[in-house]
């Protein structure tokens, strides 16, 4: 897309989009459209409503946003333009924002508009419509509009990367392809990227990580990305679960396996937000770790009842090979704590069905040992529309993970508190880091939405982490 800001003359050949708040359409329509009467029973600006008409040679689409729209509401409203009204858009489009629109509202609109160009039809014979060459005129009275547009472009680009990483099939997104993605990012953004193969991971003591990948012909990759700023305000560590496909291992899944390409939604989020933080040049240090594996089945697959090692030095009794995500995260967390002095650590993982049983598909399950981090993530999520809600980390739940033969077991095998006991397992590998949070995003990273006929990636975590970081700067 080619953005032009505050052009001297609005093109009359393309589509003009005007967002309005409920019951304020008469005040918000620009002067050129004052003579156009829009009957209130037909359109009053209610949330998710729209009205189109011609004004002279100009085709106009008025978007209703409701009385007090959230960031996510605005993003979705503008995403519909290209996703659902693409026939209205040919070569040019103008977006005119009312004077009272805030920067965050315009950002949400421009991000959503660009997300509307995304399609999962990667392998269709008839390719989806290409919007890369359309000209977008942005009209706003806000100061520094160029920076606002550029920021929205970077956010949208990161979210689309997160979409792709989750939506592409598992023969395309493998541990090696995630490693290649990180290396390419490093070349473009001058980041430091290290990738451990199986031999190097063995020498580093990443035993739990390696155990999960033993059954796959696709060798695991342990990815480390370092972003450094000359004047950092904090050092954040991120760990993302990168199971590129999950059969369940020898405890093979009995349903829903065709969705298991999405089991690297945590990795997609932390990789995309790493790209975004680098693009925005935020004043922090960031260390991102993605343990990337495929949990498959062959003669070498790890077994239920095996006792395996870990980077932290704890022995682990394997109760269930389908509780694999916590094993690779355990080594990722331990490696991060032992090798980097981070102020805060956040891991994101599509970890448990239990989190869906608790919260459905509305929010992530949040676990944190630090009140400031917990409240910060909740607040950021409310602001940006990627919500989380806390669950306890009481020691009594940790006893459920006691093993008779090893230091800890990877699954308690009981039909309760699954998300909590998984979080307690992870906590055992954080070496008592004082500011750690775990986001179980199983219900929110790969979802049904109005923008596709099948489940697709949501990029949950990208905007959340950006807002969480910027709220601390």
From TrEMBL:
Gene Ontology CC terms: cytoplasm
InterPro entries xrefs: Leucine_aapep/pepB (IPR011356), Macro_dom-like (IPR043472), Peptidase_M17_C (IPR000819)
CDD domains: Peptidase_M17
Pfam families: Peptidase_M17 (PF00883)
A GO BP annotation: proteolysis
Keyword annotations of the record: Aminopeptidase, Hydrolase, Manganese, Protease
Top-level taxon: Bacteria
Location of the Cytosol aminopeptidase domain: 164-465
GO terms of molecular function: manganese ion binding; metalloaminopeptidase activity
Keyword Protease: yes
Protein's UniProt keywords contain Protease: yes
Family: Belongs to the peptidase M17 family.
Protein name: Leucyl aminopeptidase
Organism field: Algoriphagus boseongensis
